[in-house]
Amino acid sequence: MLLSLIVPCYNEQDAIPIFYKEAKQVLEEMAVDYELLFINDGSTDGTLKILQELARKDGQVYYISFSRNFGKEAAMYAGFCNVRGDYAAVMDVDLQDPPAMLPQMLQIIRSGEYDSVATRRSTRDGEPVVRSWFAKRFYRMINRISDADIVDGARDFRLMKREMVDTIVRMSEYNRFSKGIFGWIGFRTYWLAYENRSRAAGETKWNFRQLLRYAVDGVINFSQVPLSVASWFGMLMTAVAFAAVVFIVLRRLIWGDPVAGWASIVCMITLIGGIQLFCIGIMGQYIAKIYMEVKKRPHYIVAESNLRQDHKEGAPRCLER
Ligand code: UDP
Ligand code: MG
């Protein structure tokens, strides 16, 4: 039995040595075969150097280095495409996903009742209040309007069976939202909750704007509901227009027809114009996604790696793009 850990790293020179030490210790205690696959996601600091060094000293360490920063989603995908393990897990390098949970996760998955063991934060303590509030609204909304089951506080840290990894690799869409993909493919998942903890070293790569972008991407990738917003507005406006016609006819009959009301017309024109642009904007978001999909560009470009050909043959084949 082989256990593979996928570790995306972006400018993590301070965190990698700490992670390596802790993960290594846990894995040795577990007495299983394992491989550690680090993905250097276009770091501009000493990350690659550290990974090369680790790989030279330790035969169980592999790395893939991207030609530039492609984002964590691409890094995870590269990991899934290149691991050979019967079980695989994605872990952040900042120790926010504690390696100490691995033995318990492996035990649960090996009992055979579950195909994956996922983790979620039991609290959002230590996070800015505004961010928590938006995050909660986001999860409530996306679960209502999409058929992927997305759990609030879910982390990307999860241990999966080979079958699940192969399925994820087959979902080769360019716009990736892993939380949605994990939920969409189904399988029997066991949820483990744990206390949120802060980064071991370095700092988070996310600011509020990026998180908002991530949330919008999630909705667009996993729901078609926003597209129907235009139809709803259209119906509403039609109803309003009918009511207005009736009102104007009645007013003409009762009070005659004084020339007034240009202000209300201007208001109506700008309102309708605004709604139309808003709806076109929503469509534009989807079209932009389609545009990226049909280009069939690679998810990532490998600049350097220590994976040998025979290693790649044991891993699921990524769809050639
Ligand atoms: N990461 C990455 N590419 C990126 C951004 C982040 O590979 O463009 C990695 C990062 O090195 C870390 C993990 O993704 O291992 C989670 O990132 P971070 O800790 O910044 O996110 P947070 O935990 O704050 O959500
Ligand atoms: Mg983190």
How would you portray this structure in words?
Helices cover 51% and strands 16% of the residues. Helix 1 links the parallel strand 1 and strand 2. It has 321 residues and is of the alpha/beta class. Helix 5 packs parallel to helix 8 and helix 9 runs antiparallel to helix 10. The protein is built from eleven helices and eight strands. It has two domains: 214 residues, Spore Coat Polysaccharide Biosynthesis Protein SpsA, Chain A; 72 residues. The chain binds uridine-5'-diphosphate and magnesium ion. The site of magnesium ion has 5 residues, from loops. Keywords: Membrane, Transmembrane, Transmembrane helix. It comes from Eubacterium plexicaudatum ASF492. One of its GO terms (cellular component) is plasma membrane. This is Glycosyltransferase 2-like domain-containing protein. InterPro entries: Glyco_trans_2-like, Glycosyltransferase_2, Nucleotide-diphossugar_trans.
Keywords for this entry:
321 residues; alpha/beta; Spore Coat Polysaccharide Biosynthesis Protein SpsA, Chain A; 2 domains; eight-stranded mixed beta sheet; 11 helices; 8 strands; 16% strand; elongated; binds uridine-5'-diphosphate; binds magnesium ion; Glycosyltransferase_2; membrane; Nucleotide-diphossugar_trans
Bound molecules: uridine-5'-diphosphate, magnesium ion
Q: Can you write the helix and strand succession as a string?
A: EHEHEHEHEHEHHEHHHEH
Task: Write down the CATH topology of the largest domain.
Answer: Spore Coat Polysaccharide Biosynthesis Protein SpsA, Chain A
Q: What's the domain count?
A: 2
On the 0 to 100 scale, the average pLDDT is 86
Total helices: the number is 11
Give, in spatial order, the strands making up the sheet with the most strands. 7-5-6-4-1-2-3-8
Binned strand content: 15-25%
Q: Can you give the helix content as a percent range?
A: 40-55%
- Mind telling me the CATH superfamily name of the largest domain? Spore Coat Polysaccharide Biosynthesis Protein SpsA, Chain A
What is the CATH level 1 assignment of the largest domain? Alpha Beta
Number of strands: 8
Could you give the distance between the termini?
31 Å
Poorly predicted residue ranges? none
Structural class: alpha/beta
Q: Which second-level CATH architecture of the largest domain applies?
A: Alpha-Beta Complex
Characterize the biggest β-sheet: 8 strands, mixed
Shape: elongated
Computed over alpha carbons, the radius of gyration is: 25 Å
Keywords: Membrane, Transmembrane, Transmembrane helix
Protein name: Glycosyltransferase 2-like domain-containing protein
